[in-house]
Amino acid sequence: MSDEMGGDRETTQTTRDDRDRGNTSMPNYLSGFLALLVVAGVAFGYIQWKSRRRLEIAVENRYTQAFFDLVSNVDNVQVALAKSLASGSPRLRVGALSDVWKQAGDAQANLNSLPVSQGILMRTSAFLTQVGDFAFITARKVANQQMMSDEDWTRLAEMKKQARELGDGLAELQAGAAGGNIRWVQVAQKAQARVSSGSKGGSDIATDGLTRVDEQVQHFPTLIYDGPFSDHVQQREAVGITGPDVGPEEATAIAKRALPFDMSGYTATVEEEISGKIPTYRVRLKAPAKSGKPDAVVDVCRKGGKVAMMNIARDIGEQRLDLKQAVSHAEKFLVQSGYQQMQPTFASEVGGAAVIPFVAVQQGALIYPDMVKVKVGLDTGEILSMDATGYLMSHHTRTIPKSKISAAEAAELLSPALEPAGEPRLAVIPIETVDTPEAVCWEFKGTSFGDDFYVYINVEDGREESILQLIPTSEGTLAL
Known about the structure:
Elements: H1 2-86, H2 90-112, H3 122-143, H4 150-178, H5 184-197, H6 205-217, H7 248-258, E1 267-274, E2 280-286, E3 295-301, E4 307-313, H8 323-336, E5 342-344, E6 348-350, E7 353-362, E8 365-377, E9 383-387, H9 389-394, H10 407-412, E10 419-420, E11 425-430, E12 438-448, E13 451-458, E14 464-473, E15 476-479
Parallel strand pairs: 8-11
Antiparallel strand pairs: 1-2, 2-3, 3-4, 4-9, 5-7, 6-7, 7-8, 8-9, 10-12, 11-12, 12-13, 13-14, 14-15
Helix pairs in contact: 1-2, 1-4, 2-3, 3-4, 3-6, 4-6
């Protein structure tokens, strides 16, 4: 009996010992597993860090390249303007002015690529656009054997001086970039943080430097110019403005209604009354502090109360929309703004936004002088800006004459090297080579040796009035 009890005690003790050994083995197993997880986590984190670092370096290099290219573009604009003034040969002058146009366009593209608020760069961007457009139309004038006016020469000289001043301002900032004092990725991060918090504060060398450059451009005299397909704006009086006069308070209410978002809490100030061919009230709309909402500027016509210009200063986020969707948003906005019977023409993509010119339509004809330009953010589809200067200067009911030359007859006048595509359309275009400011034409789209063109044949006499080449770019399609 005692032997059996002793055996039971031994068995019990053995079982207890085995259980204790099993209990002590679990922590060792878990420790090994946890150690493996830690090593894997560290390795994964290192790989992620290396990947992010490579991405940051690539982005930094891209921003740096865009900035240095911008400086080079502006220097080239100044040099080409100087050549256009010094040249006695029309052929060489056309070449120099064409180079001004190209370099100004490249400069604007590089400027829009920098990771700073578009509001900061608004004046500089507008200046580059005006310089490029004026050089383009002046080159066409010289190529058409027209004499440059004294005003043309004065403008070229003034633009040369302004381009040099802009270049000097950028050169100061370039010195900081060359010395390693500017980190564009950090600039982008700070800009995004300011947008997220709604804060206006905070600064960095790049943003402060570009702000100083843009403020310098503010003092440049404004070129009254609206692009190569509507330079008639320079000479005409505004004919598209009708209706009773409005006062500052009514202009403020109109400006608020023009913006495509809730205006609760905004502070409105009529900053100034702008005289000129289109007298307007400039209404500045300031967002509530820390609201994260953008500020805006709206120019309202003193006669009739139409919105002549609107600009919303905000950074653009990640692209989610394509150009077709952007056009749809712009069309709805124009209808709500009172611009009816408008049709989009050429859309382009710049700096995360779509720029879409719309023209009026009358009796099926496209009225190119009556142009409204709309800028749409490709992140949310919100309207960022609208410029109706061309429309307000030119819009009126036109007499569209019965064509003396049919579309079929006009097609016979096209170059044999041009293969038409699609149906011809009636179009009213501005012209510079005759006394009359506009011409009614058949518009043909076609292809010649792999390049796309629009050709305009006058419906009265069959004259080939204009040719535009469509050039695909990474930003969209340019019509030149």
